[in-house]
Protein: YggT family protein
Organism: Nitratiruptor tergarcus DSM 16512
Amino acid sequence: MIIVATFLQALAQILHMVINIYIWVVIIAALITWVRPDPYNPIVQTLFRLTEPVYALVRRYIPTVIGGIDLAPLIIIIGLQFIDMFFVRLLMQFAMRLGA
């Protein structure tokens, strides 16, 4: 049982790190759009490829442009924070109970 608990704790920590990294990717991508970046820059292209599919998913269900400002990054960050605070913590608590 302790092996399963340790595995779940490790999985929760990795998920937490991935969520935090993706939040930073969304923040950086949103900030870059304010300065009209070169669309042929490989960093800009990578950020676009990492964020645009998720933006499109959110935009499909929620109108995100209000007053000329796209709120899709904010909605995604809030959603990721919810996943991190609820599901990752729930997974961690479950792992701790298995190990006890």
